[in-house]
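Record type: monomer structure entry
Structure origin: computed from sequence
Chain ID: A
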Amino acid sequence: MDEVAGAIADPVRRRILEMLKDGRLSAGEVAERFAISRPAVSRHLRVLRQSGLVRAELIGRQRFYTLDPEPFDALITWLAQFGRPSGWEHRLDALETEVYRARRERRPTTATGSSREEETA
């Protein structure tokens, strides 16, 4: 997880990952999208490859890179503990609480089996 976090700490590497999310690219295609030198892009690709976030495939004289999202799993799991539940989760929790409260109020309250519904009828 530390290696993945270190790899994505750099904005160039994050941008490369975003590009590879859409599909396989050659090293040249990746490099031409940056204003930095090709050797610098190659170093970023090497870091991503060593962290396991990208795979490289040599076809002829070209090296193609593809995203491997599996190493993100441990980091995503770790980060999830710090996330806040969405607004819908709060509303669904409130609905669940109301359903339980309504069920509890409908239960028979005496030993004779009468319930609140019967009392109100």
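Annotation 1: The first strand starts at residue 25 and ends at 26.
Annotation 2: The first helix runs from residue 2 to 7.
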